[in-house]
Specification:
heterodimer, A: 0% helix, B: mainly beta, six-stranded mixed sheet
């Protein structure tokens, strides 16, 4: 069984740039959620994709957007990067978008904004 | 708005001790509560998931309990080992009746087991 994989592992950008982060869900999982974890904090929910549609969103501005593809992999796009966007971005997959299913996390992408 | 608090923020104990990590949440309307482990620079590893209708879950040396009425969950680790050193996070999934709200996490308890 293949777990959740994220790429790249590390990324350095400057303010105002755009970035795309990628996630492959665990085998058999059709739901992907994205979280932002600032240093010393717990992860914060960005949004969730189920069957290629966004079906839930946390308190993040529209410059955070995403996609889910037919193979259930997903992208997180962030435009107009700000210094506060520096964080670990975590992707989690689960089965069928049902809340009673555990979420399985990847190792994340560490994004640094200079 | 759901808030999750974890106490203590950090804990250092000698190997072999039994220990309890605490998690509290402000809104009892949760679907489930999940405990995770995070090693430095890594993602989250799911340890235990307790549905709102359950009182506890066990896996090996780990036991998690849930008391919705008081808004509390505990993670009990028996016979701690140096390999248990990590940050432990609890997260509540809201029972909002529709859509997806995602997990609400606490800030975690940083645990060090001294050899």
């Amino acid at each position: 069984e293949t777990g959740v994989t994220q790429s790249p592992t590390h990324l350095i950008k400057t303010r105002g740039q755009q970035v795309t982060l990628r996630c492959s869900s665990q085998s058999g999982h059709n739901t992907v959620s994205w979280y932002q974890q600032a240093l010393g904090q717990g992860p914060q929910f960005i949004f969730q994709y189920y069957r290629e549609e966004e079906n839930g969103r946390g308190n993040f501005p529209p410059r955070f957007s995403g996609l889910q593809f037919p193979n259930y992999s997903s992208e997180l796009n962030v435009n107009a990067l700000e210094l506060d966007d520096s964080a670990l971005y975590l992707c989690a997959s689960s089965l069928s978008g049902q809340p009673n299913q555990p979420q399985h996390f990847g190792d994340g992408t560490r994004l640094s904004i200079l | 708005k759901q808030e999750v608090t974890q106490i203590p923020a950090a804990l250092s104990v000698p190997e072999g001790e039994n220990l309890v990590l605490n998690c509290s949440f402000t809104d009892s309307a949760i679907y489930n509560l999940q405990w995770f482990r995070q090693d430095p620079g890594k993602g989250l590893t799911s340890l235990l998931l307790i549905q709102s209708s359950q009182r506890e879950q066990t896996s090996g040396r780990l036991n998690a309990s849930l008391d919705k009425s008081s808004g509390r969950s505990t993670l009990y680790i028996a016979a701690s080992q140096p390999g248990d050193s990590a940050t432990y996070l609890c997260a509540a999934y809201p029972n909002s009746g529709g859509g997806a709200d995602g997990l609400t996490f606490g800030k975690g308890t940083h645990l060090i087991i001294q050899p």
